[in-house]
Amino acid sequence: MEVLLVSGISDAEETHIPFSVVVTNSVTPCDPKTYSTYVLERGILLGGLRRLQDCDKDFMFTYTEDPNYGPFLQSVNGLAGNPEKHTYWELLGKKPNGQIIRLDVGIGCYIPSANEEIILNYTKY
C-alpha cells in the first residue's frame, strides 16, 4: 500500500521570496520593463515567472521543454528568440553589489534570492 503525504501548508503560510524581473533588449534597444513577483522559499524561477504572468497582463512568456536540459525560455512579451537571426533570451542576475552575472542554470533550476534582480535580456549570439 502506497501512502501519499500531502503538506497541509498553504501558499499563505509559506515564506515569500520577492524578486524583480527586468526585461531588456540588446538587439533593438528600448527602455527596460521591471516587474515584481515572488517564489515560495526554495522555489524556482519558472514558478515566479508563471505567477507573474498570472497576475500581470503586461507580462507573458513561453518556454519549451528540452528532454535533456529542462525548460528553455522561448519568448517574452511576444518576442521570441530566432535561430536564423541568432537571437535568444539570456538569463542574467544582478547581485547586491551591482555585479551582473550570467545564470549558470535555466528557469527550471534557478532559485531566486530575496530582492534579487533577474534580467531577461534579448540578445544575439
Please describe what this structure looks like.
The chain has 125 residues and is mainly beta. Helices cover 9% and strands 42% of the residues. A five-stranded mixed β-sheet has the order 2-1-8-6-7.
CATH class equals Mainly Beta
Summarize the amount of helix as a percent range: under 10%
Mean pLDDT: 91
Task: Return the string of H and E elements.
Answer: EEHEEEEEE
CATH architecture tag: Beta Complex
Spatial strand arrangement across the major sheet: 2-1-8-6-7
Strand content: 35-45%
Uncertain parts: none
List the quaternary state of the chains. single chain
Number of spatially distinct domains:
1
CATH fold title: Ferric Hydroxamate Uptake Protein, Chain A, domain 1
Through-space gap between termini: 53 Å
Strand element count: 8
Organism: Sander lucioperca (Pike-perch)
GO cellular component, one term: extracellular space
GO molecular function, one term: cobalamin binding
GO biological process, one term: cobalamin transport
Keywords:
125 residues, Ferric Hydroxamate Uptake Protein, Chain A, domain 1, 5-stranded mixed β-sheet, 3-stranded antiparallel β-sheet, Transcobalamin-1-like, Cobalamin_Transport, cobalamin binding
Can you summarize this structure?
The protein has about 120 residues and is mainly beta.
Give the helices and strands, then pairings.
Elements: E1 16-25, E2 33-40, H1 45-55, E3 61-66, E4 70-76, E5 79-80, E6 87-94, E7 100-102, E8 116-124
Parallel strand pairs: 1-8
Antiparallel strand pairs: 1-2, 3-4, 4-5, 6-7, 6-8
